[in-house]
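Let's study a protein:

===
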Amino acid sequence: MAILGSMAASRSPLSRLFTVLLAGLLAGLALAVAALPGNLLLGFATRSAIGTYAALPDALRTPATPQRSYLYANDGKTLITTFYDVNRTDVPLSEIAPVMRQAIVAAEDRRFYDHGGADLRGLARALVANVKGGGTEQGGSTLTMQYVRNVLKTDPTRTAEERAAATDPTIGRKIQEIRYAGALEQSLGKDEILNRYLNIAYFGSGAYGIAAASQRYFGKPPAKLTLAESALLAGLVQSPDAYSPIDGDKDEALARRSYVLDSMVATGAITAGQAAQAKAEPLTLHPTQQPNGCTAVAQGHDDWGYFCDYLRRWWVTQPAFGATVPEREQALRAGGYTVVTSLDPKVQATAQQQATKVYGYDNKRALPIAAVQPGTGQVLAMAVNRHYSLADNPAGQANHPNTVNPLISGGASVDGYQAGSTFKLFTMLAALESGRTLSTGFDAPAKLPTRYAAEGPGSCDGHWCPANANPDWMDGYRMMWDGFGRSVNTYFVWLAEQVGQDKVVEMAQRLGITFRADSDAAFAKDNAANWGSFTLGVAATTPLDLANAYATVAAEGTYCTPVPVVSVTAANGDKVPVGQPSCKRVLDADVAHAATDAARCPVGQQSPYGQCNGGTATTVNDILDGRPVAGKTGSSEENATETFVGFTPQVAVAGIAANPDDPTDSVGSAVQAKVIDAVARVIATAVKGQPEKAFVAPSRELAGEPRRPVERPPVVPDRRSDRDDPRSLLQRWLDRRG
């Protein structure tokens, strides 16, 4: 940089005179030193002004330059998106075309391989020219000096004032730059310095480093750059924004290309004929824009944005990436991480296809779907019939077709949705854990008076009185098998009373159900023992929580925290210790086996004990072609929501049809069959090609002894058979408050 010229141009006449005199003095000194013999000159440079490598700032010894982070699907190849403040990725010198290395040396520092960090001859020449011209006609900075400046002005560990000082137009700063450059040259090889320079230089149009520049302008890696392309890129460094053929002056860019080619002839890197041929090539660009953030996922895959957002929110909770949330966010944008996520593109594609098959993108109702791998907690898919986008919606449409709200995982303003009878699983698990058996029997009535005070149409003599939606099919003597298979409300309310509602609530929390709604959280904390309707699924949940809870049963009682990554690799190649399955046993394996045994009844399969005699989702067995599967349907009050969650030993999938903006808008019972079909087909994709695994049968101790003959054949219920809580919204609100 022609630092003295810029000083002379910006100060008062007296200051400019002083600068000119000082510049002349330095120029004379530089010329005198430049005239010394080579070995003496090197010794002079080494001893006088250079300093030592150990005294260098940490950023120069171990650069902390910002790089973009990459997010891939679980195949390690499918790019989801990237995150960056600065579009930059380091590459080794071996992955940069030799002509590119030659071009940058010819363009910026022809004597790079001869000097010791500061080219005194070049500096003297620049000083004299600038003093004579009274401006910044020539620059005297070597590649090494430019590298020093670039590192110090972009070092994320330095303050804004320190970064600004790296380009201050002062002689002191210039001398320090020379000292640092000399110290680097004593300790690093020329190729290492050149590699570092090429990885940090700004090439215009938002591209920092040769890898980003090669992709930005030509859509190719730097190893494949041609002579003409290399010369053009090398020419941009002097004035990146002005010469950029994308954002600046194409004619100037071509003129600079010709200058670089002539310089390469002068250095002997190429012949005059090669230069002429390269000059004759037309400017052919293939500009690519690097995606940045979750709203910039691959074209045609904006559904990936919901998973990306879930990963981002998970990331900022991990101490491995920084002590505070802002530090962790900065690490994602500047740390150069390679993240292999748990997203399975095939499962995701099926889930998205099925969600949009049930409801279109512009439908006010939604079908969020989540898929989780039992035993690891890895999230395989997160889909919903919405575009993950900040684009405006038509008037009156709050969250469709575009939204970035976490409709699948919950959080922010999303508490979740009622999941109906799927919560009966928690009652069954609590009962089994307390010592009751699958054959625990009860003569379930059409209506069951309870001890919970209530008024209104859902009450009997001042007490809450839940009813079965289809008495002809549900009433009568039931055990856990057919009580679960037929979704008998009065059986499970009775069972929850025997076990204790607080035990049922605790079981749900143990399996990962999070109460995001303030009213649910308060009730669970202060009055769980009186939460009579909890077993009927009146608390809000999400497809991700629900799928993972059922995945715990599929994993024979091992709960794993949901995780969106398979591996995270830092820019230096080190593995970051995050993302490994975090699992613990929360249920006795036999209890999980018993619950699974009963959960085969709703999907049209048979328990090893032969006690299944009807289900609410029997089409699942046909879709899975008889493969071992289990699950449960759920319908909330007035069919406001319709839910199905299914699982095999390899995957658990949940979908909840709801109106995210209006919980009073009932989706209706007719959509239940479509939700069942959608979830089952996601399961089918997830297990395709995997070996068929059987469920483990529960022990005779937990099965118990059935006390009545099995009812045959199964009866097909009507569409309303799984309507779990037929009370009004007002009544339910009153019930939950005692």
Remarks:
- Confidence is low (pLDDT under 50) at residues 1-50, 709-738.
- Residues 13-34 form the longest helix (22 residues).
- The chain has 30 helices and 19 strands.
